[in-house]
Design brief:
The complex is a heterodimer of chains A (about 325) and B (about 350). Chain A contains ten helices and 13 strands. By secondary structure, chain A is an alpha/beta fold. Chain A folds into two domains: about 220 residues, P-loop containing nucleotide triphosphate hydrolases (Rossmann fold); about 70 residues, YebC, transcriptional regulation domain (Alpha-Beta Plaits, 2-Layer Sandwich). In chain A, a hairpin with a 5-residue loop joins strand 1 and strand 2. The longest helix of chain A is centred in the middle third of the chain and has 16 residues. Chain B has about 350 residues and is of the alpha/beta class. Chain B has 13 helices and four strands. In chain B, helix 6 runs antiparallel to helix 8.
C-alpha cells in the first residue's frame, strides 16, 4: 500500500522567553485508505502536528510528505487533493449553506457539485439557510462538507466532534466512515477514546509531542495483557492501611493493578477466574467491597497505563 | 465529481456583497448616515435671512430709551432684566450681550469676547444706539447677499463628506473585515484550500469598489436634488479621485489589518489613523484654519489632498492636470501602504 502521509523526526519549537517544544521528533506513517487517529490529551501536540502536515505551519525541522509530495514545492497540487476541517472556523454567518459550499468549490479545479457535497452530509434541507442559523452539529457537518467539496483523496479533521451532542457525533462518524469506504484516507485528531476506538483503523497515542503507542485500537488494548478491567473500591476501613498494588498483583490472571483515589483497577484476561480469587483475598485481608464493576478495557486504560494520567479530566466515555 | 469551473474571484466578491447587503445596520451606516449628515448640517448651516440677536438691557434709570431704540429693529430680541438676571443670562448663553445705560448717554457693553455672536451683537447694538443718538453715516453702502450654489456651506461640505466616506469605507470595509475574518480563522481556512492569495485580496478590493459606487452616487444625487449642489468640473475627474481615494484608503486599511488579531487592536489602530484626518483634513471646515506650523503635516495626510482635490473639481471645475500634486501624494500613500501591507500580512 502506498503511504499517504509520512513524517520523520518532526520537531516544532515555538520561540519565546521559554521556548515550547510542541512536537518532539515525531514519526508517523499513514497508509492510503486507512482512517488514522491522533489520540491524546489537550496540549499533547496533536493540532500542531496535523497543521504541519496540512502545510499551515512550518516545522522547525523534520520531513513531511503528503501524497508523495512536499510542501514548498508542490503546494497547489497538494491543496487540490486534500480537504481540511480546522478545529474552530466560524464560517460567514450571513451566507447560506449552498453559497458557502459554492464559494469553497470555486477554489478547486475539480470536485463535487455543491449539491452533492450537501447530500453527503445530509444538509440538503438547509441549502438556503444562513450559516448563523445552523445548530452546532449542522455547522460542523457543513465544515466537513467544505473539506469534501474538492473531492479530496486525503481528509484532515481536527477534533471533528468536540462539543457536539451524542447524536450529532454519530452522524459525523457515519459521514467519515462513508468517506473511508471509498478507499480514501482520513487523518483525525481527537481526545475521545470512543471516537478513536469506533472510527480509526489505527491510532497513534500522542503525549508531550511524541508518539508513545501505535497500533489498531484492538492491538493497543490487547497490549495491556488483559482486555477486561475490574474496578472496585473498599468501604471505609478504620485503622487498616490502604491496599497496595502488591497485595493484589499475584491474583490469577491479573496483568496490572492501578490504585488511585480509592479506586482500584485490575487489568485481567478472564474475569471469571480472577473475580472469585479477588473476593477471597479481600476476605482474608478483612476488607469490605463498596463497589465492584467489570468492563472491557479501553484506550483510556492504555493511556493511563502508559502515562499514569488520564486523557481528559472527568473522562469522556459516552456509552 | 465534476470539473465544472466556478470563478473564485467572482465567488469571493459575491460572498462579500451578500454578507454586506444582509446586514441592514451596516448598509445604513454606509449609505444612510452620510445623507443624514448632509441633511442635518445643511439645515443647521442654511443661509438664514435674518439672524436674531438676543440683547438684555439691565433695568435702571436710563433703560427705557435704549430698549425702545433697539426694539425698533426687528433683528434685536430685547429683554429687560435686573443686574443679576442679566449676568446669569449672559453666562448661560441665553443672551449675546448685556447693555447698561448710564447718564451721558453712556453705554456699557458686557459680553464674552470669545463668542462670535457676542462680538457681532456688540457691534450691531453699538451701531444702532449710535445712530439713535444721532450719528450720521458718511459713506453710502449696500449689501449683496451671497447665496448662489457653489458658495454655500453645503457646497463646501459635500466633497468633505465624500472624502470622509472613502476613508471610513477603506478602513472598515477592508481593514476591519479582514481582521474579523482572521479572528474567525476564516483566513486560515481559505488558505487551507487551493485559493490564490491574490484572488482573495483582489476580491476584497473589488467588492470595496462596488460598495463605494452607490455610496458616492447617492450622496451626490441627494445633494444635487435637495440642495442644488452641482459638480462644476468633469464627472470623470470626480470619479478618478473617488477611485484613487478608495484605492489609497484600501491600502491603509490593509496595512492596519496586516497583523492585528483582535477587534480591540484593529479598532484602536483605525481610530489612531482616522482621528487626525477627521479633525485636520478639512471635512467640516477648511484645514487652512490650523496654524501655519502644522500645515505641512496636514497637507501630507492622505485625506487632505483627496478632499482638496474633490473640492477643486466639484466647486471650481479644476482640471485633473492642475491637481497633479494631490494625485502624487495620494498615489504614494496607496502604493507604499499596499506594498508594506502585503509584506507584513499574516494569514493566521
Amino acid at each position: 500500500m502506498p503511504v499517504a502521509i509520512k513524517c520523520e523526526n518532526l520537531v516544532k519549537r515555538y520561540a519565546g522567553k521559554t521556548p515550547v517544544d510542541a512536537v518532539r521528533r515525531l514519526d508517523l506513517a499513514v497508509e492510503t485508505g486507512e482512517c488514522f487517529g491522533l489520540l491524546g490529551p489537550n496540549g499533547a501536540g496533536k493540532t500542531t502536528t496535523i497543521e504541519i502536515i496540512e502545510g499551515l505551519l512550518e516545522p522547525t525541522s523534520g520531513e513531511v510528505e503528503v501524497l508523495a509530495m512536499k510542501w514548498g514545492r508542490q503546494d497547489d497540487a497538494i491543496r487540490q487533493r486534500i480537504g481540511i476541517s480546522l478545529q474552530e472556523t466560524k464560517l460567514a454567518e450571513k451566507l447560506s449553506v449552498l453559497e458557502t459550499l459554492t464559494l469553497f468549490r470555486s477554489f478547486y479545479s475539480r470536485g463535487l457539485e455543491p449539491d452533492e457535497a450537501m447530500r453527503r452530509v445530509s444538509l440538503e434541507e438547509k441549502a438556503a439557510a444562513w450559516v448563523g442559523k445552523l445548530s452546532g452539529g449542522q455547522k460542523q457537518r457543513l465544515a466537513v462538507a467544505c473539506a469534501l467539496v474538492g473531492d479530496p483523496d486525503l481528509l484532515f479533521l481536527d477534533e471533528p466532534t468536540t462539543g457536539l451532542d451524542p447524536q450529532a457525533r454519530r452522524q459525523l462518524w457515519d459521514i467519515i466512515r462513508e468517506f473511508g469506504r471509498q478507499g480514501r484516507t482520513v487523518l483525525l485528531t481527537t481526545h475521545y477514546m470512543d471516537e478513536a476506538e469506533r472510527l480509526c483503523d489505527r491510532v497513534a497515542i500522542v503525549d508531550h509531542g511524541k508518539v508513545i503507542a501505535l497500533g489498531s485500537p484492538r492491538e493497543l488494548i490487547a497490549s495491556l495483557g488483559g482486555e477486561h478491567i475490574i474496578d472496585f473500591s473498599i468501604a471505609n476501613a478504620a485503622g487498616l492501611r490502604e491496599l497496595q498494588a502488591s497485595d493484589l498483583s499475584d491474583l490469577p490472571g491479573t496483568q496490572s493493578v492501578r490504585c488511585e483515589d480509592g479506586q482500584i483497577s485490575l487489568a485481567v484476561a478472564e474475569p471469571h477466574v480472577t473475580l472469585p480469587a479477588l473476593l477471597v483475598r479481600l476476605k482474608d485481608l478483612r476488607r469490605e467491597l463498596a463497589s465492584l464493576t467489570t468492563r472491557h478495557a479501553s484506550l483510556e486504560d492504555v493511556f493511563v497505563t502508559l502515562t499514569g494520567r488520564h486523557l481528559r479530566d472527568g473522562g469522556s466515555h459516552e456509552s | 465529481m465534476s470539473t465544472r469551473q466556478y470563478s473564485p474571484l467572482g465567488q469571493l466578491v459575491l460572498a462579500r456583497l451578500r454578507e454586506f447587503f444582509r446586514q441592514p445596520e451596516v448598509v445604513f451606516w454606509v449609505y444612510g448616515f452620510p445623507i443624514l449628515l448632509v441633511v442635518a448640517l445643511g439645515m443647521a448651516f442654511r443661509n438664514k435671512p435674518v439672524e436674531h440677536i438676543a440683547v438684555s438691557v439691565q433695568n435702571g434709570q436710563y433703560t427705557q430709551p435704549v430698549a425702545e431704540a433697539l426694539s425698533a429693529n426687528a433683528r434685536f430680541q430685547v429683554q429687560r432684566c435686573d443686574a443679576d438676571a442679566c449676568r446669569l443670562r449672559l453666562r448661560t448663553g441665553r443672551t449675546d450681550l448685556v447693555v447698561i445705560a448710564e447718564a451721558g448717554p453712556h453705554y456699557q457693553y458686557s459680553y464674552d469676547p470669545t463668542r462670535a455672536e457676542s462680538v457681532m451683537a456688540r457691534s450691531a447694538v453699538d451701531d444702532a444706539l449710535q445712530r439713535a443718538a444721532g450719528r450720521k453715516d458718511i459713506a453710502s453702502t449696500n449689501d449683496k447677499e451671497l447665496a448662489e450654489p457653489g458658495a454655500r456651506y453645503i457646497d463646501f461640505l459635500v466633497p468633505g463628506l465624500l472624502g470622509m466616506g472613502l476613508m471610513g469605507g477603506g478602513l472598515w470595509g477592508v481593514g476591519f473585515v479582514i481582521v474579523d475574518m482572521r479572528i474567525r480563522k476564516l483566513l486560515k481556512r481559505f488558505i487551507a484550500t487551493p485559493m490564490k492569495k491574490y484572488q482573495f485580496l483582489a476580491g476584497i478590493m473589488f467588492s470595496r469598489f462596488l460598495f463605494m459606487i452607490p455610496e458616492i452616487v447617492i450622496l451626490l444625487l441627494f445633494a444635487w436634488l435637495v440642495f442644488g449642489v452641482r459638480v462644476q468640473g468633469s464627472i470623470f475627474a470626480v470619479m478618478f479621485f473617488v477611485f484613487l481615494g478608495a484605492f489609497t484608503f484600501a491600502g491603509i486599511g490593509l496595512l492596519v489589518a496586516s497583523r492585528a488579531n483582535t477587534v480591540e487592536t484593529v479598532s484602536g489602530l483605525m481610530n489612531l489613523v482616522m482621528l487626525p484626518m477627521w479633525i485636520a483634513s478639512g471635512i467640516f471646515f477648511s484645514s487652512d484654519r490650523f496654524p501655519a506650523g502644522v500645515q505641512p503635516l496636514i497637507k501630507i495626510l492622505p485625506l487632505t489632498p483627496l478632499i482638496n482635490a474633490l473640492r477643486a473639481v466639484i466647486l471650481e471645475g479644476t482640471s485633473l492636470v492642475q491637481l497633479w500634486p494631490q494625485i502624487v501624494v495620494l498615489s504614494i500613500w496607496g502604493v507604499v501602504t499596499f506594498a508594506l501591507a502585503l509584506r507584513w500580512f499574516r494569514w493566521m
